[in-house]
Specification:
2 domains; 39% helix; protease; 14% strand; 289 residues; 10 helices; C40 family peptidase; hydrolase; 6-stranded antiparallel beta sheet; 10 strands; single chain; Muramoyl-pentapeptide Carboxypeptidase, domain 1; alpha+beta; endopeptidase fold (from Nostoc punctiforme); Peptidoglycan-bd-like
Amino acid sequence: MRRSYKAIRVMLMAALLVGSTAVAQAAGYKYGDKGGDIVDLQKKLVTYGYKARVNGEYDANTKWAVRLFQRDHHMEVDGITGPDTYKAIMGKPFNESRVGKITRMAKAKLDKEMADSRAAAAKRAASSKQGVGKKAVRKGSADDSLFSGIHRDPVDEDFKFAATTTMSKEVKSLLAVAEQYKGVPYVFGGTTPQGFDCSGYTRYVFAKAGINLPRMADEQYNVGKAVDKQHLQPGDLVFFETYEPGVSHSGIYIGNGRFISATSSRGVAIADLSGGYWGSRYIGAKRVM
């Protein structure tokens, strides 16, 4: 009888695991997924005028097509085809039997997309030296309505201002606010001192200085003036490529080769800009104040 109870318990746990996996898969399509009805999704995007490649892979191209669709339809812009986005594109709810069959794109292809994205970012950074990017969006801008919506690093020192006499009062105030939230835990989608994600943190800090940044890290990269790494000043936004091609992490440069950001491993923390995990993932910087 004891064995029978044990067997039943194992079967129940397995059923719960399968059920939870199906729910997780049914939550939506995201970068790196393959299969399901991604082909049908891509065909729909093409008919709407978005340049998605019809290949059955949720690659960077598809992600950006989805982001544009979300932006144009005043939805949360995250590049993920969740239930609401799926229904808006496809005109029907998820077909869970198809969503449950998704796999992952080949690692070699994901690595290549990442490498191509780094090369493109480097090219953009080089060309941007000849001109000035868009200005930071100030409070009250209509553009803001579009964006409402594991690693370890050895550096963990006390917050320090750069040793400079040219730092403005506004920058000092900005860095003081940034330091105030050191240690706040990381929360995916977090935008408040109860929990931040990377772009939620930078947006919150700059809002305190009267500068209203877009919600997502890659959109924040599109504002302000491009800055060479060797000419960084405290208060500059710094950007990195992490879990997917293109800008996916943002932080605030604080001087002396360090920056502060909301990280998934340590919450809001200080790290070395050029070494460790972040050095090889640095993409560029923008000055918005």
